[in-house]
Every structure is written in structure tokens, then in C-alpha cells.
Amino acid sequence: MKKKKTIIISVASLIVLAIGVYSFQKKAPKDAFRLDTTKLSLNKITTTVTATGTIDPIIEIAVGTQVSGIISKIYVDFNSVVKKGQILAELDKTNLQSDYNSQLLNLNSSKTQYNFQKKNFLRSKELHDKNLISDIDFETAKYNYELAESTYKVNQSNLKKAQTNLDYATIHSPIDGVILSRAVEEGQTVAASFSTPTLFTIAKDLTKMQVVANVDEADIGNVKKGQRVSFSVDAYPNDQFVGEVMQVRLKSTVTSNVVTYEVIINAPNENLKLKPGLTANITIYTVEKTDVQTLPNKVFSFKPDIDALTKKEFVVYENKQIAAKLKDNERIIWIQDGKTLRNKSIVIGDADATNTEVASGVTNKEVVILELKSLAEDAPVGSGEKSPFMPSFKGKKGQGGGQK
Q1: pLDDT band per the 50, 70, 90 thresholds, residue 323
Q2: DSSP state, 238?
Q3: What is the reported pTM?
Q4: Average confidence score pLDDT of the chain
Q5: In a shared domain, residues 197 and 81
Q6: DSSP of 168-186, one letter per residue?
Q7: How far is CA 246 from the centre of its chain?
Q8: Residue 404 — very low, low, confident or very high, per pLDDT cuts 50/70/90?
Q9: Can you give the residue range of the structural domain that contains 188?
Q10: Distance in angstroms (rounded) separating the CA atoms of residues 222 and 358
Q11: Number of domains the chain contains
């Protein structure tokens, strides 16, 4: 008798559990839905522009020579630290010195001739004033004096030029800096007939670098001077470097039908990790705002299903004139007040991929609709969830009952 009573209680328990399982996993009707809502919240708005660029010194000078000749001596090498005025190299001065000496002799000769003709002219002028010599003699003396004076001045200029060329044979550093490149060797001939050959490239200060970034035309409108920049280089993949937009250049560059603009970014380099020529992967922060009132971008996509809402006794008030008068900085949202839904316009500010800044038009107390989510019949209310009170039945495949 006791055994029979135990069996009856077990059967009753199984029936109760089966009813619970059915109730938990029953499917929602086709017209079931819920309204997901939100309110104003404080968030951070951040928008960025990505680009690539090259690390360069802020000041980089190519040092050349204005005279031709053979490099007789080089005093510096790659990576040498130099000071302004320091001798970098010297050209062979044999021909230049010879030209200088020749011009000096010409100057001395013309100076002697000039002094003689000047004295002769002054005497002739004094005699001519007393009518003691003819006009022809006076004019001849004057002509010889002026010709000697011109020759003397030309030779002065030629000597100065020869001295300058001789000075150019000694190459000095125009700035304090570091030698980035050396393009010549001792004994090499350089010709400056048509263009100034580059002998050395000097970077002024490697602790202050810049990034020359190529920004796409679709993004350049958002980039402005003073914006914060972060970038990385492949040489130091775990390091993040910071900088600031210093200049947005107006000239565009077209490569394979892609239009880009150069953006100059300062890049402090106190630890000298950044080297000229490195490729930088850049992120420019075009908008950065913290603790601003925002709404999710999803609220602007909500369109009420009036038929579905009406069946559930919701009342929808849609002011269609709002959309006709909407300005560029305004958007439409829907507010829920109990069973009542109504649309309204708000003034927005900046936006990122998730949220939009709200300038005015909605209060912290108003409930804003995100979306109307349908609970389709093929999606059980308990889909993906399991009741903690539901037992786990183990049985053979294809059998619904438990083991005896």
C-alpha cells in the first residue's frame, strides 16, 4: 500500500513538471511585441579620422656647393652631430686660388692705372680751366680717367667673386643638427654648372619631428589645426605616440584617382625613438566631448507600426508637419507616455558611431523609444533560457521519457 502511494505521488509530480515545462517554452503569438526605450544619458562623443604618413624632421636642409671641383677632404659622416659654421668638407682649391691670385694682380694693375689717370685728369682740368690746353687734350684725359676707373671697379668685383668662390670651396654647416645623409666621397668630382649638387642632408633637431599624413578628401573637411592625434609605427608596435595637427595644406595630390591632402602633425621625440622615414598609422580625433547628453543613434530610425500599436490599445499622435520643417541640425524622435506615443523634433550636436549629442528638445524624464521589437511565433518566450527549477531528463535518442 505504501509502495502504491509513492508511485501515485511520483506520477503527480511528473505531471506538474510537464505543465511547467510547457508553460515556460510556449511560443509567443504573432502579434506580440515589446517597446524598447531609453532616456538621456551622459556619454563621451568621439569621432576620428585615420590615415597614414611619414615621419620627417621639422627642419631638414640639403647642403650643396656652388662651385665645381674635387672633394679633397670630408670631416663628418652619417649621424654626426654638427654645429652651425662647422666645416663639413673641402674642395680642392688649386684652381680657385690661382683664379683669386690672377684677379688680385689685375686689380693692383688697374688700381695703378686708375691713380695715374686720375692725377693726369686733375692736371689737365686745371690747365684747361686756364685755357692752357685744348679741349681735345682735356677730353682725352677725362676719357682715359673714366676708362681706368671703370676697369678698376670691374677688377674689384672680379676679385670679390674669386674670393667668394674660394670661400665656397669650404663647406660649412648652416645649422646645428645631425647628418642624415652624405652623398659624396673624398676624391669625387662635383659639378655645379647646371644645378647645386647635394653633398649632405642635415636635420636640425631630431627631438622635434613631424608626421606628413595623407588624408582622404572625404575626411579632410573634419580635420582642423589643434586637434589631438595618436599614432603608432611598426618599429615600436606596443608604443603609442601623441601629437597635434599643425597645418592642413590646401594643395591636393592625386594618386590612382584617389585625392588626398597633406596634414602636418607635430610629433615630440624626446627619447629619439622616431626616426626619419618611418611609416606612421595615424588617428586624428576630430571630435572629443565628455559628459554630454546623448541618445543612441537607433532612436532616429524608429518608425511606429500604427496598426500593431492600435491593436494593443496604444494611441499614436504623429505630427507630420515636423518633418516638413526639419532643419539640418534637427532630428525626429518618438516619446512614450504610458499608452501614448508622439513624435517631436530635437536639436542635435556631434555624433559618433553609437551616440548623438542632444542640444535641446527632450528632458531627462521623457522616455524615448528605441525600437518596436516583434516577438515572433517562431521565437519562444523562453528561447535560449532554462528554468532553474526544470529537471534534466536523460534518455535514449528519440525517446521523450525518462529512464525507469
Answers
A1: confident
A2: E
A3: 0.72
A4: 87
A5: yes
A6: HTEEE-SSSEEEEEE---T
A7: 9
A8: very low
A9: 60-92+169-204
A10: 20
A11: 4
